Amino acid sequence: MSMTMAEKILAKASGKDKVEAGEIVMANIDVAMVHDITGPLTVERFKEIAENVWDPEKIVVVFDHQVPAESIESAENHIIMREFVKEQGIKHFYDVGEGICHQVLPEKGHIVPGEVVVGADSHTCTHGALGAFSTGIGSTDMAMVFSEGKLWFKVPETLRFEINGSLDKYVTAKDVILKIIGEVGVDGATYKACEFSGEVMKNMSISERMVLCNMAIEMGGKTGLVEPDEKTLNYIKKRTTKKFEIFKTDVDSPSLETMEINVENLEPQVACPHNVDNVKPVSEVEGVEIDQIFLGSCTNGRLKDLRDAAKIIKGHEIADNVRMLVIPASREIYKRALNEGLIKIFLEAGAVVCNPCCGPCLGGHIGVLGPNEVCLSTSNRNFKGRQGSTKAKIYLSSAVVAAASAITGKITDPRSLER
C-alpha cells in the first residue's frame, strides 16, 4: 500500500507495516522537548503519575522564553526545571543564553529524519524540515510522554504544496509561506501534514526550509515536512552520529492532496493585523508608520536573516521614530554573526542587540508593545495582544522587509531602496 511520509514515519513508530489517515496509533517517541514555560506544568503533572522518566537521554530541556528571568515567578520556574533535570539525570539541558528551542535542537544534533519528535510548544513542527514527524503537544500529554515514552496520534492526511517558479531578489522563504497561508487560511490545513516540495524547495537551504515548516501550524497543520535530500544529510552529519531512516511520500498515496504554488513574480508579503492569513503584497501596505522592528524568533532569527538584514542596513541609521530589536535565535548564530561583523553593523545603525531568546514574540519581558504602537516583526504570529498591549498592531514580514522599514520608519518594499 502506498503511503505518505507522515504515514510511513508513524507506521514505523507504532510497529506497524502500514497505517491509514484517520487511524489511531500509539507511537514511540524519539525526542521530547520542554522549555521554561511549559516545563514546570509538565513536571507537576508528571510527579502525579510517575517517579522516573522513561529515558533521560531522549528528553531535551531548553530555557528560551523568559531568559534571563525577569520576575520571581519565572526564576522559580527555572529553579523547578534545574532541580528536575538534576534529579532525573537529564543530559540534554540548555540553560539561559543557549537559544530558542526550535533552533537549538537541530543545531545540537537532536533531530534526524524518520523520527517522531514532540515538543510542548506549537512551533515544534519546525523540525520537519529535516524529515522528522515533529509536532507540538500540551504539557499534560508531555507528562505522559515523560512517563511512558509513547503517545497516541490520529494519522493525518497530507497536503502537499508543490512550489515552483523562481524567487526574485528580496523575496524569501518567509514570503512564500505567508503567500501560502494567505491562500489557504488559518484553518485550511487543520490536522494535516503540510509537505513542502518542488523546485523552489530544492534550492532552499535548511534554514529556509525551517521557515516554512515552522509556520505550518499557522494554517492549522499538524506538522510541516520536507523530504530529506543531500542538503539534509550534510546538515545532519555535521551535528550527530545518530542512525536514521529516510522516508519519502508515494505520489499515489490515497490520503495525499497536492496544491500547486507558483511563486514567479511574487513580491514581498506582509501579514497584517490581527491574523496571520491577512496577507497582502508589500506594495499595498507601504507607508504604514511603525514604532518597533523585531528581527528574530524561531522563524527568522537565523544567520541568513541577520546577513540579509545587515546588507540592507549597513551604512544607514535606524529611523529616529523607530527602535529595532535584533535577537539571534541561538548562541551559535550570535557568535557567527559577531565574527562576521553583523552585530557591529546593527549596533552602529542604532539597533539594540539582545541575548538569544524568544524576545517579544510571546509578549515576554523584552520589547513589549504599548497601546496603539505598531510593530513590524519577523516572527510567526500577530494576534491581538501577542506582543503586549491588545491595542497594539503587529505586522509580519521577512528580514529584508524589516531591515528596509527600519531605515525609513515605515513599512517599505526593499526594492524601492534600490530604485
Characterise this structure.
The structure is a single chain. The protein has helices at residues 5-13, 39-49, 72-88, 101-107, 139-148, 173-184, 199-203, 206-214, 230-237, 297-300, 303-313, 331-339, 342-349, 399-408, 414-418, and strands at 24-28, 31-35, 59-62, 92-94, 116-119, 133-136, 150-154, 158-164, 193-197, 223-225, 256-262, 269-271, 279-281, 292-296, 323-327, 352-353, 374-377, 393-396. 32% of the residues lie in helices and 19% in strands. It has a five-stranded parallel beta sheet with strand order 4-3-2-5-6, with helices on both faces. A five-stranded parallel beta sheet has the order 16-15-14-17-18. With 419 residues, the chain is α/β, with parallel strands linked by helices. It is built from 15 helices and 18 strands. It is globular and about 60 Å long. The relative contact order is 0.14. Helix 6 links the parallel strand 8 and strand 9 (193-197). The chain has two domains: 5-245 and 253-261, Aconitase, domain 3; 270-418, Aconitase, domain 3 (2-Layer Sandwich), CATH 3.30.499.10. Helix 2 crosses helix 5 (139-148) and helix 11 (303-313) crosses helix 13 (342-349).
Strand order of the largest sheet: 4-3-2-5-6
Number of discrete domains: 2
- Tally of helical segments: 15
Quickly give the structural class.
alpha/beta
Count every beta strand, where a strand is a DSSP E run of 2 or more residues.
Answer: 18
Kindly report the oligomeric state of this protein.
single chain
CATH topology of the largest domain: Aconitase, domain 3
CATH architecture of the largest domain: 2-Layer Sandwich
Strand content: 15-25%
Main β-sheet: number of strands, strand sense, barrel status?
Answer: 5 strands, parallel
The CATH superfamily of the largest domain appears as Aconitase, domain 3
- The proportion of residues forming helix, as a percent range, comes to 25-40%
Distance between the termini: 55 Å
